Amino acid sequence: MTILICGVDEAGRGPLAGPVSAAAVILDPNYTIVGLADSKKLSEKKRDALAPLIRQHALAWAVAYASVAEIDQLNILQATLLAMKRAVLALPIPPQQVLVDGLFCPDTGFPSQAIVQGDSKVAAISAASILAKTARDALMLDLHTQYPQYGFAQHKGYPTAAHLAALRLYGVSDIHRRSFKPVARLLTDK
What is the per-residue pLDDT across 135-173, written as a single tens digit (0 to 9) for each? Predict the structure, then answer.
């Protein structure tokens, strides 16, 4: 009997704006998706090609978020674990084991193991990495239409020179993480 292994990963811990996303994926052991790897090592084009294959061929998948308010209230690690827990609990099929990229596991009630660099070692975690990243990128593109002055389409909220310059010019928006130092500094310098 095959054990239903769920891979879990996040995207968006480092940006100054937008939610953190997490995905949980149970791959079909009878279907191999060629090209799975850590999303950070894949081009955007490759991630965008793999994401629909993962959604189509996985036994189960889910994407969840922790909001900017939750990030500011809890801290980024706890908000990330919350998004991961939400993703696992949203799966239509309960996993028998949860494998998480990184050092920490969310409290899901399922047997769990954290694997450092798991997104490069475990296919299900690679798949989760890709879904978390593509879902968050799509959300940041939507936010770009609401807040075009910040350039989210280009940097997805990461602290690039252009983003920091836009923050100084336009101020802090509702979707900026106030607990992150570059944003907090702008708020206290007023």
Answer: 999 999 999 999 999 999 999 999 999 999 999 999 999
Report how far residue 113's alpha carbon sits from residue 72's, in angstroms, rounded to the nearest whole number.
Answer: 27
Between CA 134 and CA 165 the distance in angstroms is: 26
For 78-99, b/e burial (b = at least 16 CB within 10 A) is: ebbbbbbbbbbeebeeebeebb
| Residue 86 tokens, joined | 């939400």
What distance in Å separates the CA atoms of residue 130 and residue 147, rounded to the nearest whole number? Answer: 25
85, 77 Cβ separation under 8 angstroms: no
Q: Report the alpha-carbon angle 125-68-127, nearest 5.
A: 15
Q: Rounded to two decimals, what is the model's pTM?
A: 0.96
Helix (H) or strand (E) holding 56: helix 44-57
Determine which helix (DSSP H) or strand (DSSP E) holds 107, and give its type and residue range: none
Rg (CA), the chain: 17
DSSP 8-class letter at 176: B
Asked if 19 contacts 68 with a C-beta cutoff of 8 angstroms, the reply is yes
Give the pair of three-digit tokens for residue 42: 């894949």
DSSP code of 150?
A: G
Specify the CATH class of 5-139 in words. alpha beta
Hey, what are 107's tokens?
């409290």
β-strand partners of 25: 7, 61
